[in-house]
Design goal:
This protein is 72% helix and 6% strand. The chain is mostly helical. The protein is elongated, with a radius of gyration of 19 Å.
Length: 173
């Protein structure tokens, strides 16, 4: 077997990939349960809407939030599943937990990555609201559907690759 294939069959790498997939599937299933949705995701999303509304108001727009809805007299958005940063968080948490590091380093990576996701998601929510407020439904739909979620996930994964590449791996044979 060539050394190129041996790199793909490295037990540590295979363990990481397998555990990553199991964690992504398991956490994705978990956040779909009605109890988690009702008691964690729903209140979290309403909290995000409240913070985004505060930021929008600091930019001079008179907006208010009700639960997961942010509105101004001419425009409103409802932050739904997929727009709350949970998917990016699941990917990040799964990657951090699956990577062979000390538990302390895994926790640090998860917390730093979550802080990044939070900031990116706030920028996403506020900018989408402002785009929608300007009245361009086509531009809003384009950025909402194709750009903003991709950017949050892509930057999160770049963060993880950068962060993990600088950590002393704990390799177990």
């Amino acid at each position: 077997m060539s050394s190129r294939w041996k790199a793909y069959l490295d037990p540590v790498a295979l363990r990481f990939v397998g555990l990553f997939i199991v964690l992504v599937v398991g956490l994705s299933w978990l956040v779909q349960t009605s109890w988690i949705d009702r008691n964690l995701i729903g209140p979290y999303t309403a909290w995000l809407a409240g913070i985004a509304t505060l930021l929008i108001n600091l930019l001079g727009v008179d907006a208010e939030s009700f639960g997961t809805v942010i509105r101004e007299s001419a425009f409103a958005v409802d932050i739904k599943r997929g727009c709350d940063g949970v998917v990016a968080s699941i990917l990040l948490v799964s990657a951090c937990l699956a990577y062979p590091l000390s538990w302390r380093n895994r926790l640090v990576g998860t917390l730093l990555g979550y802080a990044l996701i939070f900031v990116l998601n706030m920028i996403r929510i506020v900018s989408l609201f402002l785009i929608g407020l300007e009245g361009s439904a086509g531009l809003f739909d384009f950025f909402h559907t194709y750009v903003s979620q991709f950017v949050v996930i892509a930057i999160t994964m770049v963060f993880w690759v950068f962060w993990a590449g600088r950590q002393p791996a704990v390799v177990r044979g």
